[in-house]
Write a structure and sequence with these properties.
This protein is mainly α and 168 residues long. It has a domain at 1-61. The protein contains six helices and four strands. The strands form two sheets. A two-stranded antiparallel sheet has the order 1-4. Strands 2-3 form a two-stranded antiparallel ribbon.
């Protein structure tokens, strides 16, 4: 059985909700008072929920055997890529896709990537240890440490995405 629920928010209800959810926040470090509030769209929001049977949900997701096929296909592509010593021209682009597997092209590239990941993790853990010693808990600065260490990976991902977009 399929059941549908629709929820609508009117402009008047939105204004009441904003007033009900407005609070003043004091920032002790900057000695500022800012008025934080929840804002809603001026348009009506309609959300529909449909309860699907278990069989339909199972068909919407990959099954464990499909994940195994993906895994073995990925390993096969990596083996072929390594056998070709990273030469992409040897691969058939219609049957093998290396996007996301480039760092596995050779054992040396893989080791280089793994060492970069370990360095990033080590840096974040060291920064977290220092924070704990001085009694500080600042997840934002931990994120900044990770971001600085992974800048090259972000730039590479952006460049590859641009190449993929242009090839469409």
């Amino acid at each position: 059985m399929c059941r549908t629920t629709t929820k609508c928010c009117t402009k008047a209800a939105t204004k009441m909700a904003v007033k009900a959810h407005s609070t003043k926040v004091h920032n002790a470090a900057n000695k500022k008072v800012s008025n934080k509030s929840v804002r809603f769209s001026d348009s009506d929001n309609k959300v529909q929920f449909r309860h699907a049977p278990k069989e339909e949900l199972q068909m919407a997701w990959y099954q464990p055997q499909e994940y195994k096929v993906f895994h073995y296909d990925r390993l096969s592509t990596i083996r072929t890529l390594r056998h070709a010593k990273g030469d992409l021209s040897v691969l058939d682009p219609n049957s093998q896709c290396v996007r996301g597997l480039e760092m596995n092209a050779t054992p040396e590239i893989f080791k280089y990537r793994a060492s970069g990941i370990k360095t990033t993790i080590r840096s974040v853990l060291q920064h977290q240890h220092v924070q704990r010693q001085i009694g500080l808990k600042d997840p934002t600065s931990l994120g900044m440490v990770s971001m600085v260490k992974s800048t090259a990976a972000r730039h590479l991902a952006a460049a590859l995405a641009l190449i993929d977009e242009q090839s469409l």
